[in-house]
Specification:
Oligomer: single chain
Distance between the termini: 18 Å
Structural class: mainly alpha
Number of helices: 5
Keywords: Membrane, Transmembrane, Transmembrane helix
Transmembrane segments: 12-36, 56-78, 85-105, 111-130
Strand content: under 5%
Number of domains: 1
Protein name: DoxX-like family protein
């Protein structure tokens, strides 16, 4: 007998939110790496930074790749594949800690840490539905 796989509503909602967030992150960091000079000027103008020497297009390209990996993980979880959960966690933890490691400890985002934790807990709750 061929049973249709069941995707819980919470898992669907988390995946849709991840599709949106990771897509926006991917596009944003793609543009930031492509137009690094202009982005650097905006960072200096609208933040407390006086220089963007600590970052480079490579930094933004790495973040872009990590958001693509996060999106891939969400797509895999949408299809109820367990490996997507681990791809997602790997990507999100690197997204969370890359600024800390690349720039300085003050670049750590508590807000990002809270959202990452909420999503990982949400996906963990649904891990039993992933094969």
């Amino acid at each position: 007998m061929n049973q249709k796989k069941y995707r819980p509503q919470l898992l669907s909602a988390l995946c849709i939110l991840t599709f949106i967030g990771s897509s926006v992150g991917f596009i944003g960091y793609f543009l930031a790496s492509l137009f690094f000079e202009q982005v650097g000027e905006l960072i200096i103008k609208y933040s407390s930074w006086h220089s963007v020497e600590a970052i480079s297009p490579v930094y933004f390209t790495l973040l872009m790749a990590l958001f693509a990996l996060s999106l891939t993980g969400a797509i895999r979880m949408w299809k109820l594949h367990r490996d997507g959960f681990f791809l997602y966690i790997f990507a999100q933890l690197l997204i969370l800690f890359l600024p800390f490691l690349w720039i300085n400890p003050q670049a750590f985002s508590e807000t990002n840490a809270i959202f990452t934790t909420v999503f990982i807990v949400g996906y963990s709750i649904n891990l039993k539905y992933l094969k």
